[in-house]
Amino acid sequence: SIPSPPEAPADAASPPAKKAEDEQAMGLKTKADFLFLEELGEGSYSTVYLGSDRNTHTRFAIKVCSKAQIMREKKIQQIFREKECLQKLSRPESYHPFIVRLYCTFQDNESLYFVLSLASRQDLLGVLKKKKKLTVEEARFTTSEIVAALTHIHAHGIIHRDVKPENLLISQSGHIVLSDFGCAKMLEPTTPEPAPPTPAPSSEAPDGPPRTGRRCSFVGTAHYVSPEVLNNKIIHEGVDYWALGCIVFQLLAGDRPFNDVSEYFIFKRITSLRYEFPADFPDANAKSLIESLLLIDPDDRLGTRAKGGFSGFKEHPFFEGVDWKGLPDSVSPLMA
Ligand code: ADE
After folding, report:
1. Measured from the CB, is residue 126 less than 6 Å from ligand 1?
2. Whose CA is nearest to atom 2 of ligand 1?
3. Which residue has the higher pLDDT, 217 or 310?
């Protein structure tokens, strides 16, 4: 059984030594192994529950996806993409403390189940709703952790494509947990997935070049979508850095950079790079960071391969003094 004590939540960070045992123990689980407690959230075809392992009392977030709704909404491709990306990122050698971890999956006649690490403090959207904006120190910490998560997934050939405050969960200890890989794109193909358990064939087109991901960006909010997605261009990891630019702006300005009365007008603002810093914007280095992320040409954005990847961030003055390696063990300013 899993050796973690009941009071230790399956919060994002799990000691590396434990992982192999975890994986073995989590190999052949079914619905009956978990107690389903309260509902944590709801999506269009899924509901996330707080779940507890009946044996170990370890707590997880269990995402329950309705097969009927997946079929109805033609989300089969999306579900398998999510599973594939999460599996890749949950392997011991590619695990990251700021990325949601998939412990196991199982199914019954009605549903697919994803047993995920529990991020037990709301999400960044909730934090922003409560605080309106963050202090520069809180924003530096939060942005550093998002950068660490994004550079990690990109190094593993995965683009998230739906980075937004709702998908940035907060762990019990106040650290960022990047979640929801339903729109993610895997760049290099890995070993083929087994055939989907859902019986009928999908009417959705097979996964094409990244430009086919376009619809994904329209599922939720339009505010973080990049100009190249709107212009139906071939995309790369730059889409995630555009979204990061929007988020850093929002953390410090209290509002999203591109906002208007309708999606149409939001998109016009995005494609013409029409945004303004408020007069009281608190930090010149943060402003410079945002300006090096919100650029029309994705190859010009900080963090992209063309701009030196992670080292571009490390050298940026906004991140001066950040102990990147020490982030997971640092005390989060979001806990205050
Ligand atoms: N909602 C969606 N995923 C979650 C997670 N991993 N932890 C807590 N709430 C969630």
Report:
1. no
2. 48
3. 310
Q: In whole angstroms, what is the distance from residue 109 CA to residue 90 CA?
A: 26
Q: Ligand 1 center to residue 85 CA distance, Å?
A: 16
Cα 211 to middle of ligand 1, angstroms: 28
**Which protein residue's CA is at the shortest distance from atom 6 of ligand 1?**
118
Confidence of residue 120 (pLDDT cuts 50, 70, 90): confident
| Sheet bearing 46-53, strands edge to edge | 34-42, 46-53, 59-66, 111-116, 102-107
pLDDT of residue 289: 98
What is d(CA 73, CA 216) in angstroms, rounded to the nearest whole number? 13
> How confident is the model over 21-71, as pLDDT tens digits?
554 556 689 999 999 999 999 877 899 999 999 999 999 999 999 999 999
- The verdict on the CB of residue 65 being under 6 Å from ligand 1 is no
The CB of 116 under 6 Å from ligand 1? The reply is yes
Cα–Cα distance measured from residue 298 to residue 237, given in angstroms and rounded to the nearest whole number:
8
Residue range 300-311: average pLDDT?
96
- Residue minimizing CA distance to atom 4 of ligand 1: 61
Compute CA distances 175 → 80, 91, 140, 313, whole Å: 27, 20, 13, 19
Amino acid at 263: E
**Any idea which residue has 């971890």 for tokens?**
101
Which of 99, 91, 113, 73 has its CA nearest to residue 13?
99
**Full-model pTM:** 0.85
| Residue, of 225 and 206, whose pLDDT is higher | 225
- Under DSSP, the state recorded for 88 is H
**Catalytic annotation, residues:** 162
- CB-based contact 197:112 (threshold 8 Å): yes
Give me the amino acid identity at 314: K
Specify the pLDDT at position 26.
65
User: How many Å from the N-terminal Cα to the C-terminal Cα in the chain?
Assistant: 35
Give yes or no for residue 163 CB within 6 A of ligand 1: no
Rg of the Cα atoms in the chain: 20
